[in-house]
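Quick illustration for those who missed Monday's session on complexes.
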Amino acid sequence: MNKQFEPVIVGFLCNWCSYRAADLAGTARIHYAPNMRPIRVMCSGRVDPQFVLKALREGADGVMIAGCHPGECHYVEGNIKTLRRFILLKKMLAQLGIEDERVQLIWASASEGIILAEAVNRMTEQIRALGPLNWQEKVLGGGNGHGHPAVIEPAQEAEEVLYD
Amino acid sequence: MTENAKPKLAMYWASSCGGCEISILNIHEKILIVDEVFDIAFFPCIADFKTKDVKGYPDGYIDVCLFNGAIRNSENEEMAHLLRQKSKVLVAYGSCSYEGCIPALSNLTTKQATLDTVFLDNPTIDNPEGILPQPRYEVPEGELELPVFYNTVKSLDQVVDVDYYLPGCPPEPPQIWAVLEIVVAALLEGAPLPPKGAIVGARDVAVCEECPLEKHEKTINRFYRPYEIIPEPGLCLLEQGLVCVGPATRAGCGALCPQVGMSCRGCYGPLDDVEDQGAKMLSAIASVIGVGDPSMEEDELEREIQAVVDTIPDPAGTFYRFSMAHSLLRRANLNGGNGKGEAK
Ligand code: SF4
Ligand code: SF4
Ligand code: SF4
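Prediction with iron/sulfur cluster bound:
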């Protein structure tokens, strides 16, 4: 009965390299884990850290950002900006208790379908080993809590956390 | 006008520092106008009212309640519900109530760790029996109760419906007065109130917009903490490597802090349409990092950027100093990772 946990990975793939790498992996019939849900962005530099946080909060178990190798960016330096942001984001995510493997940045050029496929396989196994993130339930205990959220039942937490 | 016909004003502190109450007094002689226009119905900081007085009021009896402080324990939450029920207009007053503020930084750690620090581990603590506060305690005279201390600090709008938000830690006097004027005009002359949910007493531009310091292109090779350098006067602080949250913060204060050489901490919260102030600030900081160019080898590139990032010791605490409770993730995950808010 033990069904294997299938992680959900949201993938932000850049239009010029990594999305094409994913396309190539498809046309070349490379078999790889079906766990990544690709979203095409024009450049990996378009990935606002809010996208990553939102994906994690809304149920993703991991986020992959994929772009062109440094030096090969269609917009010259977009991916360098991505890298600066990513390194800072990783430091902050560690403080928020999000394991290193859950958010990854990879470089895959349009011809590197195999590299993209291997990265997806590797990341899927790493996250499978960590288990589900399930932020809403496990961390927020079901309460939404953003903006003008649904009103949380009074003293709901009081019952949950009365220390004994 | 008879005494009873005056609109009723309340101000309450939940998990707060008291600064918000003081900020009301900061409107100076205009406080006399407040007194003239309103009847104080509840204001524990300055007048002797009891919770049971509030419980005795009919629903909606209080015209305006300024609620400051975050929701940190069960008493804060009960008072939020009570005052919501008894007030026509409930205002989340100040950063704690609006978005968690300093109290919500403890969402980066656990309740247990907070209690341990406060009651057991601090060097000045003398508590050999390791006594911690208990929600219920038997004494010969009967049972004593203390509020339950929550693991997660919430903003006011995470426990009750809120009509308006007045940002700032604390809100600045001109803004407070502007808001009170709107309310008074509405109550006395039937002028329209702002739409429900509005953030009042602030603008929808960044603090940088109001900041008179001179700005150039920014390329930073290392960041400094405030004690590490004396900034050049007249020049943008972020440009000098001080982490200034001005680019990701709503204006309204008149850029008070950068004008005196202290970088903006972000107390007016995010701009409209920004869900997560910390993420916005993270992007702004990353975009001024000056090292790394496309010709470098991949590991060299990573090493160089990492070295700059390492000069920011506490990104979560810095970027979410005021908005942790309202952030997308709201708190640290304690099931995995270190969950202690410590940067690696
Ligand atoms: S918003 Fe600032 S001044 Fe007001 S109670 Fe909170 S910490 Fe104090
Ligand atoms: S000092 Fe801060 S608020 Fe002023 S312009 Fe620079 S970044 Fe903006
Ligand atoms: S400059 Fe920033 S921290 Fe200072 S009062 Fe204004 S918003 Fe708050």
